[in-house]
Please model this.
Amino acid sequence: MSRNINLHTLNDSAKFARQSFSEVVLRQDDEINLAEAALFIAAEEYPNLVVAEYLDKLAGFAEMVRRQLTDEMNSVAIIDAINEVVFGELHFRGNMESYYDPRNSFLNQVIDCRRGIPITLSVIYLDIARRIEVPMSPVGLPGHFLIKHQDETGDLYVDPFNGGRVMIEPDVAELLSRVTGDRVTLTREHLAPATNKQVLTRILANLYRVYAQSMDYGRAVSTLDRMLLIEPGTPGYLRDRGILYAAMNKFEQAIADLERYLKVAPEADDAETLRDRIRTIRLDRARLN
Model:
């Protein structure tokens, strides 16, 4: 399946990163290397980033863990060994002081600075687990991100943002209640493994919120471009990108996205408001021409 890639405003290194990301997310989900794809997200922002070098660093982290393992270790002991390397020897930590810094969403920066948010720390943890052949899966809770390990004794959950704390389901329920201010009660759906594409979309959505709130519209559009590569035609992404284009006085692109949104969601609650918005954009375009 081909997908439209918006390359017009990108420099050569960013174009390569965007093309590479597009190729990765066209794969079947279980064929996606999550860390590689996350590094291609970062490569648009960091033109000198060499993805292979960071994958080699992750391979080195995994080898440090592998040297600690024995055949007699159970699941808890293996998780303890990963934690000792990741949070003990390598000193990875949750960045509680600057949680909303966009660098927390760029995997190269998290690897270099040893600080990140739950999802990027989880991507590192998952990559190490994959390399040492320990089955683990991502769990995207509202407001937080965990790792799940299933074995014959039941499900264990690891919280990379909090030093690799190991939890069982009641602990996760308490955590979710705390991070959401008691607004969300844990369900089985919350604990379902996330797909690789869902993880990548969430990384981009985090960046989108940071950029939109800081009125960095160009970067916000760039994140939506890549979210649309993962989920083409998603109405909300088209609407949000159209609104951003309008704020940037890119009238043709704004009208195109908003009209596409209305075509797929003609009865949406905001449909009439957006029809008025399109009329206003056309007037603005005529005045500037």
